[in-house]
Amino acid sequence: MRVTIFGTGYVGLVTGTCLAEVGHDVVCVDIDAAKVDGLNNGVIPIYEPGLEPMVKANHAAGRLHFTTDAATAIQHGNTIFIAVGTPPDEDGSADLKYVLAVARTIGQNLSRPAVIVDKSTVPVGTADKVRAVIAEELAARGVQIEFDVASNPEFLKEGDAVKDCMRPDRIVIGASSPASIEQLKRLYAPFNRNHERIVAMDVRSAELTKYAANAMLATKISFMNEMANIAERVGADIEHVRHGIGSDPRIGYSFIYPGAGYGGSCFPKDVQALERTAKQYGYAAEILGAVEAVNARQKHRLFELLDAHYGGKLAGKTIAVWGLAFKPNTDDMREASSRTLLARLWDAGARVRAYDPEASHEAQRIFGERDDLLLCESARQALEGADALVVVTEWKQFRSPDFGRLEATLADKVIFDGRNLYEPREVEQAGLAYYGIGRGRSV
Ligand code: NAD
């Protein structure tokens, strides 16, 4: 089938590549000429396991094209995805300017029937807005072309995006017309062979499903961080509590890890946007407000532990930081808790030696050159001349360090474990002080 995808970010590029991988003929269009140029020359703009060889193979096979030419791209597809960004507006609601700009371009160039599919995460009612903009442009051109607007929210996880896209848990399709649902079912048939993954529904329910999923996951994280903060005060270890509750199948083990707060391009903005939508409809979404407030506070937790350990005297200290990305297996630092930590450390007069396996170039772009930041080539290099170590992102390679070496290297012999990767006793036996999240030490 012929597919056009607007936006070659995490979602657009991965979706386009996976659709090409199963044999569809895909044109990806982006307004970022440098990105498109790079992609046409084999330069993949993001780090995502397994993506690069797949992009190159499908590009070489002629099933995956990249262009800035929206008009030609629109001629190509009878399914046209919108997968552009929906960043938060000033008041926290989703900013639809990119989505609606694409809708306008589609209306200005559509020449034959097509199903337009919102894949971006967009508030309930957006499909109606997209439909209105396209209809307005068609009317201005004085043409009548049949089109439908469907919703197909994306559930891929950064770091596992290719796997999630090739083997999705579910494919949510929201459309009012049975023909549109059929068209999307045919498009996704190669991903739906083992068992039924397609969940078809009306457009508004599909739009809300995406927000509900992210809000639920963010709630689990904030809930566990709240429990961790209580555990710390009452002298309990949240890791025992986690095992104790996860074993209940009604609760389950996934997504109940306490830590330094959630980040990334989705949870923070989606929880905010859903709260905003509820407010617009006259409903105060109190759980969502609490989820955000707990998370905002949690992002300062690591700094508070450091500050308390050093009695407020962090000026002149050199802190090694392992992990900058908002989670492992990505180079994405949007809303990452590392950013809060680094800002607070710099305010307190400390220097940072940071290492992340993939996010160094992103950190360089965000922070630029500064005297109080050294971006290191390895975890070990970050430790050289450091007084303390803070682990912010749970990359696998940080899971079992040589504590003896850490004891010999870190001047102040202390580890702050923002993801509870280590056993406190093992660290302490090596002669290091240990701080985790919610591990029975009230500070
Ligand atoms: P991104 O910022 O990585 O990419 C967006 C791309 O759209 C950019 O390359 C940008 O240049 C391009 N773009 C903007 N305007 C355009 C236009 N008029 N025409 C063509 N291209 C245009 O964004 P992303 O992370 O891929 O997210 C896209 C959407 O998917 C968002 O709504 C997001 O909430 C949602 N989503 C993201 C994830 C994720 O893990 N990143 C997961 C599920 C859903």
E-strand count: 14
Spatial sequence of strands, sheet with the most strands: 3-2-1-4-5-6
Overall average pLDDT: 97
Low-confidence stretches: none
SS strand fraction: 5-15%
Question: Which radius of gyration do the C-alpha atoms yield?
Answer: 24 Å
Bound molecules: nicotinamide-adenine-dinucleotide
Domain count: 2
Distance between the termini: 60 Å
Q: Largest sheet at a glance? A: 6 strands, parallel
What CATH architecture of the largest domain would you give? 3-Layer(aba) Sandwich
Q: Which short descriptors sum up this protein?
A:
443 residues, alpha/beta, Rossmann fold, six-stranded parallel sheet, 14 strands, 44% helix, elongated, binds nicotinamide-adenine-dinucleotide
Give structural notes.
The protein is an alpha/beta fold. It has two domains: 2-201, 3-Layer(aba) Sandwich (Rossmann fold); 202-443, NAD(P)-binding Rossmann-like Domain (Rossmann fold, 3-Layer(aba) Sandwich), CATH 3.40.50.720. It has helices at 10-21, 33-40, 51-60, 70-76, 97-109, 126-141, 161-166, 178-188, 203-234, 238-246, 267-280, 286-298, 301-309, 337-347, 360-367, 379-383, 403-409, 424-429, and strands at residues 2-6, 25-29, 64-67, 79-82, 114-118, 147-151, 171-174, 198-201, 318-322, 351-355, 373-375, 388-391, 414-417, 433-435. The strands form three sheets. Strands 3-2-1-4-5-6 form a six-stranded parallel β-sheet, sandwiched between helices. The chain has a six-stranded parallel β-sheet with strand order 11-10-9-12-13-14. It has a two-stranded parallel ribbon with strand order 7-8. Helix 8 links the parallel strand 7 (171-174) and strand 8 (198-201). The longest helix has 32 residues, at 203-234. It starts with a strand and ends in an 8-residue tail after the last strand. The model has no long low-confidence stretch (mean pLDDT 97). It binds nicotinamide-adenine-dinucleotide. InterPro entries: 6-PGluconate_DH-like_C_sf, NAD(P)-bd_dom_sf, UDP-Glc/GDP-Man, UDP-Glc/GDP-Man_DH_C, UDP-Glc/GDP-Man_DH_C_sf, UDP-Glc/GDP-Man_DH_dimer, UDP-Glc/GDP-Man_DH_N, UDPglc_DH_bac.
